[in-house]
Amino acid sequence: MLNWLYNHLWATRLKKAVTIVVTVAVVTTVAIVVPRNVGGSDNCADGVEKHGGECIGVNGSGYDFGTPEITKVSDAIAAENRRVDGRPHITVAMMLPLQPESGAERAQLRSDVQGAYLAQYRANRAEQKPLIRLVLANPGRNYGQQARVVDQLAVLADSTRHNLRAVTGFNLSLRNTVDAVDRLTNELRIPVLISRASADELANTEGRESKPRFRGLARVIPTNQQQAEALAAFHGDLNDDETVLVRDTRPDDVYVESLARAFSRDEPGRAGAKDQTFVSPSISDAGETGNDFTLIGHNICQSRAKVVYFAGRPAHLRLFALKLAEVPCHGRKYKVVSGSGAATLDRYMSDADWNKLRGDESAKEPTVTVQYTAPGHPAAWSAASRGAKNRPAHLAEPARELDELRGLVGREGAGDIGPVELDDSRTMLVHDGVRTIARAVYLANAQSAGAVPPRERVSAQWSRLESAHRVAGTSGWVCLTNAGNPYDKPMAVVELDPRTRKLAFVGLAWPEGRPQPKDCVVPSGT
Predict the structure, then answer these.
(1) Cα angle at 419 between 413 and 423, to 5 degrees?
(2) How far is CA 36 from CA 33, 40, 108, 397, 438, in A?
(3) Domains, the chain, ranges and CATH?
(4) DSSP sequence for 187-229
(5) Model confidence pLDDT, tens digit, residues 75-129
(6) Which among 294, 312, 341, 344 is positioned nearest to 110, based on CA atoms?
């Protein structure tokens, strides 16, 4: 599919890098041939080349990037792309690391890609047009080679064959992610919709006087600050000496930095324990943090804290909870609270882990309970409306969307995409992101059905997606502010229950402390 793209890219690079003076005699022809694999890169698949041991690039023809967990869903995407070939369509790129190392991370990736495909499948069978072609874009581990992929996406955006009109995905809040979004939106004017990364650094500031940091950026996941506000409203006021913050200080992880700031809000009462810091070696490597967590646990035991805010990645959150449970602390019980990055923590838990968090089986409460905000949960809408005579629209509409999604999984014609797990919210949220893109493209094209709108026209629709044009996502109403942020989008508060060894839905939390307004009319000033 993308061989022509590489020819274009190599030609562009050579024009910039080499000045060639060719003298042509009357009877002499000089030909200069440059191989495609300049720099030692190897071809992995159409549009994808090996750099630094990773297969980097863009593909929509079924390549699974060597990750067997996404083989089936990649094949389904390829089949759907073939179906729309030759008909008016736009391309949506799903940009996220596609070669994760651990089994838990590969399962998470499968959920992400499944969500994108299911939304593509639904959109292409609705009345809304043009059709959607979906491609997978691998920027490498920790988005380390995002610049190469952004180069390719720039070519796809300018191509009348591919008509790239949005880039989505973005599951990690890192400095490299910020750089990619910055170039896509501000330099290339390609609309971006963030579905998973929650750092405040990847959001535009609200307010009429605020100049957007990222032109053409939208989000469907609340920021860390919004999540912290939702948790505060959910739990009510806690005194400062009842809480303590444990935070990772590893540089360039803007998710952790943003979460730490969000959890550092002022609380009433006398001063509590100081922040407990640690430095992790990477997103998934524990390194020596286990020793740090044991020492931190002893310090927390000597304080009055009963709620621990944890600003760190899931692998470290799991280890911290286990080390805290090991500290003999006079039978005290702790609640560890974190952000949406922990949405797949249960996949990291072993039988021994569950037993350790539970502690004494005869005790009424577990030793340690881990609670966090999830962007969605399949039990949210039925649980939140239990006992209500008339379910309000902000609960009823997402419930219908979720039923549609569930009905599509395994439906004949939709293809076998592997086991679909909704509890971790990834499939739901990425699905809602692609559905939001489809709605914006449709609105941009409302006057000329079937045509392909320009990029600027698509991004101009983000602010229209509220009130009459709200998106009823499976994770809740998507109603965007003028800055492209979801207004008061609900968060599902969930916790790991060591007694049942399951992820339990606790309740809905709202950043504004109350549900979204009727018909999701976003108030002035946002």
Answers:
(1) 115
(2) 10, 9, 34, 51, 36
(3) 49-222+406-478 (3.40.50.2300), 225-374+491-509 (3.40.50.2300)
(4) IS---EEESS---GGGSPPPSTTPPPSSTTEEESS--HHHHHH
(5) 999 999 999 999 999 999 999 999 999 898 999 999 999 999 999 999 999 977 8
(6) 344
